[in-house]
Amino acid sequence: MKRTLYTDDHEAFRATVRTFLEKEVLPHYEQWEKDGIVSREAWLAAGRQGLLGLAVEEEHGGGGNPDFRYASVLAEEFTRAAAPGLAIGLHNDIIGPYLTKLATDEQRRRWLPGFCSGEIVTAIAMTEPGAGSDLQGIRTTAEDHGDHWVLNGSKTFISNGILADLVIVVARTTPEGGAHGLSLLVVERGMEGFERGRNLDKIGQKSQDTAELFFTDVRVPKENLLGELNGAFVHLMTNLAQERLAIAVAGIAGAEHLLELTTRYVKEREAFGRPLAKLQHVRFEIAEMATECAVTRTFVDRCIAEHADPTGLGLDPVNASMAKWWATELQKRVADRCLQLHGGYGYMSEFPVARAFTDGRIQTIYGGTTEIMKEIIGRSLLG
To answer: Would you list the DSSP string of 247-298?
Structure first.
Protein backbone atom coordinates (compact mmCIF):
# COMPACT_ATOMS: atom_id res chain seq x y z
CA MET A 1 0.00 0.00 0.00
CA LYS A 2 1.13 3.53 -0.73
CA ARG A 3 2.11 5.39 2.41
CA THR A 4 0.33 8.71 2.83
CA LEU A 5 1.96 9.72 6.10
CA TYR A 6 4.68 11.97 4.73
CA THR A 7 4.65 15.18 2.69
CA ASP A 8 7.22 16.37 0.15
CA ASP A 9 8.96 18.27 2.96
CA HIS A 10 9.38 15.07 4.96
CA GLU A 11 10.80 13.27 1.93
CA ALA A 12 13.23 16.14 1.32
CA PHE A 13 14.34 15.77 4.93
CA ARG A 14 14.76 12.03 4.32
CA ALA A 15 17.17 12.80 1.48
CA THR A 16 19.15 15.07 3.83
CA VAL A 17 19.37 12.32 6.44
CA ARG A 18 20.57 9.79 3.86
CA THR A 19 23.28 12.17 2.67
CA PHE A 20 24.39 12.73 6.26
CA LEU A 21 24.59 8.98 6.86
CA GLU A 22 26.61 8.41 3.69
CA LYS A 23 29.09 11.18 4.46
CA GLU A 24 29.37 11.38 8.23
CA VAL A 25 28.38 7.99 9.61
CA LEU A 26 28.84 4.97 7.37
CA PRO A 27 32.50 5.62 6.43
CA HIS A 28 33.42 5.58 10.13
CA TYR A 29 30.99 3.03 11.50
CA GLU A 30 33.24 -0.02 11.50
CA GLN A 31 35.85 1.88 13.48
CA TRP A 32 33.22 3.05 15.96
CA GLU A 33 32.10 -0.56 16.41
CA LYS A 34 35.70 -1.55 17.23
CA ASP A 35 36.14 1.42 19.57
CA GLY A 36 32.84 0.81 21.34
CA ILE A 37 31.91 4.47 20.99
CA VAL A 38 31.15 7.02 18.27
CA SER A 39 33.23 10.10 17.60
CA ARG A 40 32.16 13.37 19.20
CA GLU A 41 32.71 14.91 15.78
CA ALA A 42 29.72 12.92 14.53
CA TRP A 43 27.51 14.66 17.11
CA LEU A 44 28.84 18.04 16.05
CA ALA A 45 28.25 17.15 12.39
CA ALA A 46 24.67 16.16 13.22
CA GLY A 47 24.22 19.53 14.90
CA ARG A 48 25.61 21.39 11.89
CA GLN A 49 23.22 19.48 9.64
CA GLY A 50 20.24 20.46 11.80
CA LEU A 51 19.43 16.92 12.91
CA LEU A 52 19.54 17.67 16.64
CA GLY A 53 16.78 19.44 18.54
CA LEU A 54 14.21 19.28 15.77
CA ALA A 55 11.44 20.24 18.19
CA VAL A 56 13.48 22.84 20.13
CA GLU A 57 12.56 26.49 19.62
CA GLU A 58 14.59 28.34 17.00
CA GLU A 59 15.69 30.93 19.57
CA HIS A 60 17.67 28.18 21.30
CA GLY A 61 19.19 26.82 18.08
CA GLY A 62 16.62 24.12 17.29
CA GLY A 63 14.45 23.38 14.31
CA GLY A 64 11.32 24.81 15.88
CA ASN A 65 9.22 22.00 14.45
CA PRO A 66 7.47 19.60 16.86
CA ASP A 67 6.06 17.43 14.01
CA PHE A 68 7.00 13.91 15.12
CA ARG A 69 7.03 12.70 11.52
CA TYR A 70 10.49 14.23 11.09
CA ALA A 71 11.69 12.21 14.07
CA SER A 72 10.20 9.06 12.56
CA VAL A 73 12.02 9.72 9.27
CA LEU A 74 15.28 9.92 11.24
CA ALA A 75 14.51 6.65 13.02
CA GLU A 76 13.63 4.87 9.78
CA GLU A 77 16.77 5.96 7.95
CA PHE A 78 19.19 5.23 10.80
CA THR A 79 17.61 1.79 11.13
CA ARG A 80 17.86 1.07 7.42
CA ALA A 81 21.51 2.15 7.52
CA ALA A 82 22.13 -0.25 10.45
CA ALA A 83 23.67 2.63 12.40
CA PRO A 84 22.11 2.74 15.88
CA GLY A 85 25.38 3.75 17.54
CA LEU A 86 24.86 7.47 16.98
CA ALA A 87 21.87 7.68 19.31
CA ILE A 88 20.17 10.74 17.88
CA GLY A 89 16.73 9.27 18.60
CA LEU A 90 17.56 8.95 22.30
CA HIS A 91 18.82 12.54 22.34
CA ASN A 92 15.91 14.08 20.38
CA ASP A 93 12.86 11.95 21.13
CA ILE A 94 13.44 10.65 24.63
CA ILE A 95 15.53 13.27 26.42
CA GLY A 96 14.52 16.29 24.35
CA PRO A 97 10.93 16.46 25.67
CA TYR A 98 12.14 16.61 29.28
CA LEU A 99 14.17 19.71 28.46
CA THR A 100 11.61 21.43 26.24
CA LYS A 101 8.62 20.77 28.49
CA LEU A 102 10.10 20.93 32.00
CA ALA A 103 13.12 23.25 31.89
CA THR A 104 12.92 26.77 33.27
CA ASP A 105 13.83 29.72 31.06
CA GLU A 106 17.27 29.84 32.68
CA GLN A 107 17.81 26.12 32.12
CA ARG A 108 16.73 26.43 28.49
CA ARG A 109 19.27 29.17 27.88
CA ARG A 110 21.95 27.12 29.62
CA TRP A 111 21.42 23.74 28.00
CA LEU A 112 19.42 23.86 24.78
CA PRO A 113 21.91 25.64 22.46
CA GLY A 114 24.53 22.95 23.17
CA PHE A 115 21.88 20.24 22.91
CA CYS A 116 21.12 21.42 19.36
CA SER A 117 24.72 21.98 18.27
CA GLY A 118 25.96 18.59 19.46
CA GLU A 119 28.30 20.15 22.03
CA ILE A 120 26.11 18.71 24.81
CA VAL A 121 25.40 14.97 24.50
CA THR A 122 22.63 13.79 26.80
CA ALA A 123 21.56 10.70 28.73
CA ILE A 124 18.83 9.73 31.16
CA ALA A 125 19.72 7.58 34.17
CA MET A 126 16.81 5.59 35.53
CA THR A 127 17.85 1.91 35.70
CA GLU A 128 19.83 0.69 38.70
CA PRO A 129 21.50 -2.66 39.44
CA GLY A 130 18.45 -3.58 41.55
CA ALA A 131 15.69 -1.57 39.87
CA GLY A 132 14.50 -1.47 36.26
CA SER A 133 10.85 -1.03 35.36
CA ASP A 134 9.82 -0.78 39.03
CA LEU A 135 10.42 2.85 39.97
CA GLN A 136 9.61 2.16 43.62
CA GLY A 137 12.83 0.15 43.80
CA ILE A 138 15.08 3.13 43.03
CA ARG A 139 17.68 3.63 45.76
CA THR A 140 19.67 6.58 44.44
CA THR A 141 19.03 9.39 46.92
CA ALA A 142 19.27 13.17 46.89
CA GLU A 143 19.33 14.93 50.29
CA ASP A 144 18.32 18.57 50.62
CA HIS A 145 21.26 20.67 51.87
CA GLY A 146 19.82 24.13 51.47
CA ASP A 147 21.16 25.56 48.22
CA HIS A 148 22.06 22.15 46.77
CA TRP A 149 21.24 18.46 46.76
CA VAL A 150 23.73 15.77 47.78
CA LEU A 151 23.34 12.86 45.37
CA ASN A 152 24.41 9.29 46.15
CA GLY A 153 23.81 6.06 44.26
CA SER A 154 24.54 4.23 41.02
CA LYS A 155 22.91 3.58 37.68
CA THR A 156 23.53 0.97 35.00
CA PHE A 157 22.76 0.27 31.32
CA ILE A 158 22.87 4.02 30.62
CA SER A 159 22.94 4.74 26.88
CA ASN A 160 25.38 7.57 25.99
CA GLY A 161 26.80 7.03 29.48
CA ILE A 162 30.41 7.62 28.47
CA LEU A 163 29.87 10.57 26.13
CA ALA A 164 27.11 12.33 28.05
CA ASP A 165 27.74 15.88 29.20
CA LEU A 166 24.30 16.20 30.77
CA VAL A 167 22.57 13.34 32.59
CA ILE A 168 18.99 13.48 33.85
CA VAL A 169 19.11 11.37 37.02
CA VAL A 170 16.03 9.87 38.67
CA ALA A 171 16.64 10.12 42.41
CA ARG A 172 14.66 9.70 45.61
CA THR A 173 14.10 13.08 47.26
CA THR A 174 11.41 11.94 49.73
CA PRO A 175 12.34 8.62 51.38
CA GLU A 176 8.79 7.65 52.32
CA GLY A 177 7.22 8.77 49.05
CA GLY A 178 7.43 5.52 47.08
CA ALA A 179 7.21 6.12 43.34
CA HIS A 180 5.88 9.61 44.11
CA GLY A 181 8.96 10.58 46.12
CA LEU A 182 11.25 10.80 43.08
CA SER A 183 12.66 13.85 41.32
CA LEU A 184 14.71 14.57 38.20
CA LEU A 185 18.13 16.12 38.83
CA VAL A 186 20.47 17.21 36.06
CA VAL A 187 24.08 16.16 36.63
CA GLU A 188 26.67 17.80 34.41
CA ARG A 189 30.09 16.62 33.26
CA GLY A 190 32.80 17.60 35.72
CA MET A 191 30.71 17.65 38.89
CA GLU A 192 32.83 16.33 41.75
CA GLY A 193 31.83 12.81 42.80
CA PHE A 194 30.26 11.95 39.42
CA GLU A 195 32.16 9.02 37.90
CA ARG A 196 31.64 6.71 34.97
CA GLY A 197 32.27 2.99 35.20
CA ARG A 198 33.13 0.69 32.35
CA ASN A 199 31.73 0.93 28.86
CA LEU A 200 29.58 -2.20 29.00
CA ASP A 201 30.30 -5.02 26.54
CA LYS A 202 27.00 -5.76 24.78
CA ILE A 203 26.13 -8.43 22.21
CA GLY A 204 24.98 -5.75 19.76
CA GLN A 205 25.03 -2.01 19.12
CA LYS A 206 28.72 -2.06 19.98
CA SER A 207 29.35 1.56 18.98
CA GLN A 208 26.58 2.88 21.23
CA ASP A 209 28.35 3.57 24.52
CA THR A 210 26.42 2.08 27.43
CA ALA A 211 27.83 2.61 30.89
CA GLU A 212 27.57 2.35 34.64
CA LEU A 213 27.36 5.70 36.44
CA PHE A 214 28.33 6.38 40.06
CA PHE A 215 27.38 9.32 42.26
CA THR A 216 29.24 9.87 45.52
CA ASP A 217 28.22 12.98 47.47
CA VAL A 218 27.66 14.89 44.24
CA ARG A 219 26.63 18.48 44.98
CA VAL A 220 23.82 19.25 42.53
CA PRO A 221 22.70 22.91 42.58
CA LYS A 222 19.04 23.53 43.37
CA GLU A 223 18.70 25.20 39.97
CA ASN A 224 19.40 21.79 38.36
CA LEU A 225 16.10 20.35 39.54
CA LEU A 226 14.14 19.54 36.38
CA GLY A 227 10.38 19.85 36.67
CA GLU A 228 8.52 19.55 39.95
CA LEU A 229 10.00 18.36 43.23
CA ASN A 230 8.82 14.75 43.74
CA GLY A 231 7.23 14.94 40.30
CA ALA A 232 9.48 12.48 38.43
CA PHE A 233 6.88 9.71 38.26
CA VAL A 234 4.36 11.92 36.45
CA HIS A 235 7.07 13.41 34.21
CA LEU A 236 8.37 9.96 33.25
CA MET A 237 4.90 8.57 32.52
CA THR A 238 4.06 11.62 30.38
CA ASN A 239 7.02 11.11 28.06
CA LEU A 240 6.97 7.31 27.79
CA ALA A 241 4.40 7.19 24.97
CA GLN A 242 6.72 9.04 22.59
CA GLU A 243 9.71 6.95 23.67
CA ARG A 244 7.82 3.72 22.97
CA LEU A 245 6.51 4.97 19.66
CA ALA A 246 10.04 5.88 18.57
CA ILE A 247 11.17 2.34 19.39
CA ALA A 248 8.20 0.91 17.46
CA VAL A 249 9.11 3.03 14.42
CA ALA A 250 12.62 1.58 14.47
CA GLY A 251 11.17 -1.89 14.98
CA ILE A 252 8.98 -1.97 11.88
CA ALA A 253 11.64 -0.18 9.80
CA GLY A 254 14.16 -2.84 10.84
CA ALA A 255 11.80 -5.68 9.96
CA GLU A 256 11.00 -4.20 6.55
CA HIS A 257 14.66 -3.66 5.74
CA LEU A 258 15.54 -7.24 6.65
CA LEU A 259 12.70 -8.47 4.47
CA GLU A 260 14.06 -6.46 1.52
CA LEU A 261 17.58 -7.82 2.01
CA THR A 262 16.36 -11.39 2.31
CA THR A 263 14.00 -11.18 -0.66
CA ARG A 264 16.95 -10.16 -2.83
CA TYR A 265 19.16 -12.86 -1.33
CA VAL A 266 16.78 -15.77 -1.96
CA LYS A 267 16.34 -14.67 -5.58
CA GLU A 268 20.12 -14.80 -6.13
CA ARG A 269 21.19 -17.72 -3.95
CA GLU A 270 20.88 -21.16 -5.54
CA ALA A 271 20.39 -24.58 -3.96
CA PHE A 272 19.86 -27.87 -5.79
CA GLY A 273 20.29 -26.12 -9.12
CA ARG A 274 17.69 -23.37 -8.70
CA PRO A 275 17.19 -20.13 -6.75
CA LEU A 276 15.95 -20.47 -3.18
CA ALA A 277 13.00 -18.31 -4.20
CA LYS A 278 11.65 -21.23 -6.26
CA LEU A 279 11.18 -23.36 -3.14
CA GLN A 280 7.64 -23.27 -1.74
CA HIS A 281 8.80 -23.11 1.86
CA VAL A 282 10.89 -20.02 1.14
CA ARG A 283 8.01 -18.34 -0.71
CA PHE A 284 5.71 -19.04 2.25
CA GLU A 285 8.26 -17.58 4.68
CA ILE A 286 8.58 -14.40 2.61
CA ALA A 287 4.80 -14.18 2.20
CA GLU A 288 4.20 -14.46 5.94
CA MET A 289 6.81 -11.85 6.84
CA ALA A 290 5.59 -9.46 4.13
CA THR A 291 2.02 -9.70 5.40
CA GLU A 292 3.02 -9.21 9.04
CA CYS A 293 5.12 -6.18 8.09
CA ALA A 294 2.31 -4.64 6.04
CA VAL A 295 -0.21 -5.01 8.84
CA THR A 296 2.21 -3.65 11.44
CA ARG A 297 3.24 -0.75 9.22
CA THR A 298 -0.40 0.33 8.91
CA PHE A 299 -0.88 0.44 12.67
CA VAL A 300 2.44 2.17 13.42
CA ASP A 301 1.81 4.81 10.75
CA ARG A 302 -1.58 5.47 12.30
CA CYS A 303 0.11 5.91 15.69
CA ILE A 304 2.67 8.33 14.18
CA ALA A 305 -0.09 10.37 12.55
CA GLU A 306 -2.05 10.54 15.79
CA HIS A 307 1.01 11.57 17.78
CA ALA A 308 1.94 14.22 15.21
CA ASP A 309 -1.57 15.69 15.01
CA PRO A 310 -1.28 19.23 16.50
CA THR A 311 -5.04 19.33 17.17
CA GLY A 312 -5.04 16.16 19.29
CA LEU A 313 -3.73 15.05 22.66
CA GLY A 314 -0.95 12.86 21.30
CA LEU A 315 -0.74 9.10 21.22
CA ASP A 316 -2.58 7.20 23.93
CA PRO A 317 -0.14 5.32 26.22
CA VAL A 318 -1.99 2.04 25.67
CA ASN A 319 -1.71 2.27 21.90
CA ALA A 320 1.96 3.22 22.29
CA SER A 321 2.46 0.07 24.35
CA MET A 322 0.69 -2.01 21.70
CA ALA A 323 2.86 -0.55 18.94
CA LYS A 324 6.05 -0.99 20.94
CA TRP A 325 5.67 -4.63 21.88
CA TRP A 326 4.17 -5.77 18.61
CA ALA A 327 6.64 -4.02 16.29
CA THR A 328 9.70 -5.04 18.29
CA GLU A 329 8.61 -8.65 18.67
CA LEU A 330 7.98 -8.70 14.92
CA GLN A 331 11.46 -7.30 14.33
CA LYS A 332 12.90 -10.08 16.49
CA ARG A 333 10.98 -12.81 14.65
CA VAL A 334 11.85 -11.43 11.22
CA ALA A 335 15.54 -11.15 12.13
CA ASP A 336 15.59 -14.78 13.22
CA ARG A 337 13.75 -16.06 10.14
CA CYS A 338 15.82 -13.97 7.74
CA LEU A 339 19.06 -15.17 9.31
CA GLN A 340 17.82 -18.75 8.86
CA LEU A 341 17.08 -18.15 5.19
CA HIS A 342 20.61 -16.83 4.71
CA GLY A 343 22.00 -20.12 6.01
CA GLY A 344 25.63 -20.11 7.09
CA TYR A 345 26.16 -16.66 5.59
CA GLY A 346 23.58 -15.28 8.00
CA TYR A 347 25.85 -16.23 10.88
CA MET A 348 28.77 -14.24 9.50
CA SER A 349 29.24 -10.85 11.08
CA GLU A 350 29.98 -9.13 7.78
CA PHE A 351 26.47 -9.88 6.54
CA PRO A 352 23.93 -7.16 7.45
CA VAL A 353 21.42 -9.76 8.64
CA ALA A 354 23.84 -10.95 11.35
CA ARG A 355 24.37 -7.45 12.73
CA ALA A 356 20.64 -6.74 12.58
CA PHE A 357 20.02 -9.92 14.58
CA THR A 358 22.25 -8.77 17.46
CA ASP A 359 21.66 -5.01 17.22
CA GLY A 360 17.89 -5.38 17.24
CA ARG A 361 17.62 -7.83 20.12
CA ILE A 362 17.50 -5.05 22.72
CA GLN A 363 14.35 -3.60 21.17
CA THR A 364 11.96 -5.83 23.15
CA ILE A 365 13.76 -4.92 26.39
CA TYR A 366 14.51 -1.20 26.64
CA GLY A 367 11.80 1.41 26.88
CA GLY A 368 9.76 -1.14 28.83
CA THR A 369 9.89 -4.87 28.18
CA THR A 370 7.29 -6.73 26.16
CA GLU A 371 5.93 -8.12 29.41
CA ILE A 372 5.48 -4.64 30.90
CA MET A 373 3.73 -3.48 27.70
CA LYS A 374 1.27 -6.34 27.95
CA GLU A 375 0.66 -5.57 31.63
CA ILE A 376 -0.17 -1.94 30.76
CA ILE A 377 -2.59 -3.03 28.04
CA GLY A 378 -4.15 -5.71 30.24
CA ARG A 379 -4.73 -3.29 33.11
CA SER A 380 -6.41 -0.80 30.78
CA LEU A 381 -8.87 -3.48 29.69
CA LEU A 382 -9.35 -5.45 32.89
CA GLY A 383 -8.56 -3.02 35.67
So the answer is: HHHHHHHHHHHHHHHHHHHHHH-EETTEEGGGSHHHHHHHHHHHHHHHHHHH
